[in-house]
Amino acid sequence: VQLVESGGGLVQPGGSLRLSCAASESIATINHMAWFRQAPGKQREFVARITSDGSINHADSVRGRFTISRDNAKNTVYLQMNDLTLEDTAVYYCNAIAIRPVEVGKKTFSYWGQGTQVTVSS
Questions:
Q1: How far is CA 42 from CA 7, 22, 89, 91, 108, in A?
Q2: Rg (CA), the chain
Q3: Gap between the Cα atoms of 56 and 34, Å rounded
Q4: Of the N and C termini of the chain, which has fewer Cβ atoms inside 10 Å?
Q5: Contact, 6 vs 20, CB < 8 A?
Q6: For residues 68 and 49, is the Cβ–Cβ distance under 8 A?
Q7: What pLDDT digit, counting tens, does each position of 1-36 carry?
């Protein structure tokens, strides 16, 4: 699975952005789609996740401000980010987790996009 993020950019505090993650295959067959972010000098952290059955969860730091959603027809996952703060500045990465049958049993595959930069600055 190839993932391509877009929608990042420079925004003022309190502003909004919508990130997109386009997958190279049907996301209906992918178990989890998620957003992570990595700020300079910090570890990559979880932001939000949506599963194939529509279950959603968001990190405490973004709950109420960010919303993850998916459009299966477009094979795209979105992250709507509102009320952005300086602390939201990071490279945002899309992640896909697919559990697929292999010769014996199942195997978990993890895929990452190249990331898109979000900079919140006045």
A1: 22, 26, 11, 11, 26
A2: 15
A3: 10
A4: C
A5: yes
A6: yes
A7: 899 999 999 999 999 999 999 999 888 889 999 999
